[in-house]
Amino acid sequence: MIELQDAAYGYGGGSLLSDINLRLAPGSFHFLTGPSGAGKTTFLKLCYADLQATSGRVTLFDQDTSEMSRDEIAHARQRMGVVHQDCEFLDHLPLSENIALPLTVAGRGGVEQDGNLSELMGWVGLSARANALPPELSGGERQRAALARAVITDPDVILADEPTGNIDWEMSLRLLQLLVELNRMGKTVLIATHDLALIRAAKAQVSARVLRIASGRLQLAGADL
Amino acid sequence: MSALSGLLDILKGDAQADRVVPRRGHSVRLTLFTSGAMAFLAVFALALSLASGRLADRWSEALARSSTIRISAPAAQMEAQIWAVLEVLEQTPGVASARALTEQEQRDLLEPWFGPDLPLEDLPVPRLVEVIETAEGYDPDGLRLRLAAEAPGAVLDDHTRWRRPLVRAAERLRSLGWISMALILGSVAAMVTLAAQSALAANVKVIRVLRLVGARDHYIARAFVRRFTLRALTGATVGTALGMIAIALLPSAQEEGGFLTGLGFAGLHWLWPLTVPILSAITAFWATRAAAFKTLRSLP
Ligand SMILES: Nc1ncnc2c1ncn2[C@@H]1O[C@H](COP(=O)(O)OP(=O)(O)OP(=O)(O)O)[C@@H](O)[C@H]1O
Ligand SMILES: [Mg+2]
Fold first, then answer.
1. Ligand 1 center–CA A51 separation, angstroms
2. Domains of chain A (ranges plus CATH)?
3. β pairing state of A188-192 and B127-133
4. Any chain A CB within 8 A of the CB of B206?
């Protein structure tokens, strides 16, 4: 699915991430932790080709991201669901259309959308907000909407950056439940989070590997997690 | 998308794709107004081109590249002078053919003025030699000099020649009209490019979100291209209609009327202005497409 080989990244000459080696096997479940500013978001950006590694290789669906055309990157993103940390939406479209956006841009709007959309919005507790515009939403509502948008296309890989940062514990578990179910259906999941309780809750249900970024390196976290 | 399928897509439309880019900004009215104004001007440039083209054709036909030599001489010398003139003409470069009009032909020419029973033999009527020139034409001053030497009674009458500079001017005017058309379309392209660039810059965040959820550049570009193409088409249609009405309301042209009254469209030429909205739309399509892809490639 996604593979990083000796990948490194630095902003403006400096080095943030180095010697990153990781293979996200199909159907695997990973957590990514690390202190604020460690480079979790940057790592995810390498995975969805928003950033290009400064050295090493990042492979996405068996293609080297540095050799992918813009259209190939777009196509790869259509097979991925990403919850971005800053959860950007199209502010002029109602929430339901924003959540269906990945289907729309992939030319898959219409029938497929009608089936999943209302069910998904119900699951993340946003049914009543379907016609709200994104700027009217709370931080937590935006995160739930972002997760709904990420999974609406039934993607092969789900990358979520702090998907529960602003969300109460009960709703966080609900979102986790959704990701665990998708993983059981064979989807590959990677969640970047600070929330150790969430990681523990997940490990009770699936076999998840926990990775940690510290001083620019990727390590397997201790067994205490 | 190939250019053609792109243009067809534009006309078909895709309501959903169209909504992903917000509808806002003054660039809408600017594009409508400017393409309308440009189309109005283009109609006049076209009218100028076509009218001056007609004028040039009419005038150059009138020239027909023929002139006459009039020979006045005492009856005894007449034949000799005619021969001398014909011989001079034979040796003049630029003369295709020359022939003396027969007495009967001259009688026919004069009949309308003097009636049928004209005793031509008894009158000192000059004889006429008709000269047809080649495309290059002859040198009238040189010919005059030689005629004066060989046949003192011969007078070269090339009165149609004064029109030649006028034909050239009309032809120049016609090309100026076409150049104006090209400049106007160029301005439409420049204006649409600027408006599209400003719309793209105002929507950087929208473009970023679309890219992140997997939209291809073509998909994003199409939303902009469709919008600007339709605006240019609408504006230009209104502008063209107004321009055509203005031209139709000009005082009507007389057959050999002055140049100004001849400005306008004749017959099938009325179909020409209909190309203005189409050309404007095609121009806007390409200009927006180029601007969109350039901007998109510069964004991650
Ligand atoms: N565009 C950028 N230009 C320069 N530096 C950047 C840029 N984006 C991030 N950084 C820096 O890179 C480092 C890692 O940022 P990143 O967002 O990957 O951290 P993170 O682990 O996701 O942190 P958090 O847990 O707070 O989200 C930070 O020090 C940040 O300041
Ligand atoms: Mg982050």
1. 12
2. 1-79+156-163+186-225 (3.40.50.300)
3. unpaired
4. yes
Its pTM stands at 0.77
Phi first, then psi: what are they for A210, rounded to 5°? -110, 120
By CB neighbour count within 10 A (0-12 exposed, 13-18 middle, 19+ buried), where does A152 fall? buried
Token code pair at residue A143:
């995160």
Whether A102 sits inside 8 A of B219 (CB atoms) is: no
Mutation for A interface: B213, B220, B295, most A CBs within 10 A: B213
Give nearest CA residue, ligand 1 atom 3: A11
B189-231 pLDDT, tens per residue? 999 999 999 999 999 999 999 999 999 999 999 989 998 999 9
Complex-level ipTM = 0.92
Residue B24's CB is within 10 A of a number of other CB atoms, namely 11
Outline where A4-157 has alpha helix (H).
Answer: 40-47, 70-78, 95-99, 101-105, 111-123, 139-151
Nearest neighbour of B16 by CB, restricted to A51, A90, A109: A109
Distance from CA of B227 to the nearest CA of A (A): 17
What confidence tens digit (pLDDT) does each residue in B135-168 have? 777 888 888 888 888 888 888 877 666 667 777 8
Tokens matching residue B145: 């000099």
- The model's confidence at residue B104, banded by pLDDT at 50, 70 and 90, is confident
How would DSSP label each residue in A106-132? TT--THHHHHHHHHHHHHTT-GGGTT-
CA distance B196 to B28: 10
